[in-house]
Design goal:
single chain, 368 residues, alpha+beta, Jelly Rolls, 2 domains, 6-stranded mixed beta sheet, 22 strands, 18% helix, Cupin_8, RmlC-like_jellyroll, Cupin-like domain-containing protein
Length: 368
């Protein structure tokens, strides 16, 4: 970039280069999971998401967790108590308009009200069909615990999820999934813009969910102001926010300049798997239905998130069945989109190919 270039010009160049040299116009779709080598080469190395249609359709969860009455979940885990997020509009962890003690408006980061509920209560609160969510003061529930909530809180139904479906991805990252989390909500729930520092595979087991995805380089035009913290609560039957200690940096969707276009949109239906690389932003993801797109009837949404790796770099040098994953030589396109990917990840068996690669690197550095 010439020294005379301004910051807006640099951002424009980043946008143009990332679209021309790296980003897909649509999310790649496959009918069956592949093997570790193509997955590492085509998606992990260049940081590109993909969907496997119907890859999880054989999971018992796909046939058992849904339905209007959630009979299986009520019978097996209905008595368990979990933390349920409640908001007036379905937007948990979102930027909102709030009022201070003097009635002056300000932009704030709002956390949901959290209540301890039995799973059966949560399921009864989900809305299915026309008219859902028409009451002004009705709470919109959403369950999305972390720290491997499937095994930690809902272990009785863990056998309904076949983690072996993503064995090829675990091979690519050199280890088993570090966490398996569950989320449950309905078509009113909207997860606001954020990025996770994890390599995730999302599985929808009931309903469908729409994701708008943006790559890490788009952070340049996703405003992330520092906001005062507030928390939703109900007083005399009315929803209000109250200030709590601390500040949070969060993407303010009202400040996003639409001139930078939109991300890549994908709908994930029951039985589908979505691979989302680390640091990719999820914008306004929602359960599809009355307020969403793609499903003819509003359905509840149950899903499973398999966290494969905390960071792509963590997979470097991990041995697996005598093989070595050489990923430290990969230039992440999300960090340097204009350079694309200089070198694909090499998967080798520790034999001559790896030794030749190491000798070649030493010669370039001036060693023996």
């Amino acid at each position: 970039m010439p020294p005379t270039s301004s910051l807006p010009q640099a951002i424009q160049s980043l946008y143009d280069d990332s679209r021309a040299l790296w980003l897909p116009h649509r999310v790649a779709e496959y009918t069956t999971p592949g093997s570790a080598v193509p997955f590492l080469r085509d998606h992990v190395a260049p940081s590109v998401p993909c969907v496997w249609r119907g890859a999880a359709s054989h999971w018992p969860a796909v046939g058992l967790w849904g339905g209007h009455d959630f009979a299986h979940l009520r019978r097996t885990v209905g008595h368990k108590e979990v933390d349920v997020a409640l908001t007036p509009d379905g937007r948990a962890d979102a930027v909102v308009h709030a009022l201070d003690a003097r009635g002056r408006p300000f932009r704030a980061f709002a956390a949901p009200q959290v209540e301890r509920q039995r799973v059966s209560e949560l399921l009864s609160s989900l809305r299915v069909g026309p008219g859902a969510g028409d009451e002004a003061d009705e709470a919109v529930p959403y369950y999305s615990a972390q720290d491997s909530s499937l095994t930690r809180e809902l272990g009785e139904v863990a056998c309904d999820v076949d983690a072996g479906t993503v064995r090829f991805a675990e091979t690519a990252f050199g280890g088993a999934a570090s966490a398996t989390n569950v989320w449950i909500g309905d078509g009113r729930s909207v997860t606001t813009t954020h990025a996770d520092p994890f390599e995730n595979v999302y599985a929808v087991v009931s309903g469908c969910k729409t994701f708008e995805l943006r790559p890490p380089c788009d952070a340049a035009w996703l405003p992330k102001p520092r906001l005062r913290n507030v928390r939703w609560g109900r007083e005399s039957g009315r929803w209000r926010t109250r200030e709590v200690e601390g500040w949070t940096e969060w993407v303010d969707e009202e400040m996003i300049d639409e001139r930078w276009g939109k991300g890549v949109e994908v709908e994930v239906r029951a039985g589908d798997l979505l691979y989302l690389p680390a640091l990719w932003c999820k914008l306004r993801q929602k359960g599809s239905g009355r307020r969403g797109r793609g499903c003819e009837v509003l359905t509840s949404v149950c899903g499973v998130v398999l966290r494969l790796c905390d960071s792509p770099s963590r997979a470097a040098d991990r041995g697996n069945d005598g093989r070595q994953l050489v990923v430290r030589d990969v230039v992440r396109a999300g960090v340097d989109p204009s350079g694309a990917v200089r070198k694909a990840a090499a998967v080798c068996d520790g034999g001559g190919r790896c030794k030749r690669l190491r000798r070649r690197k030493r010669r370039r550095r001036g060693g023996k």
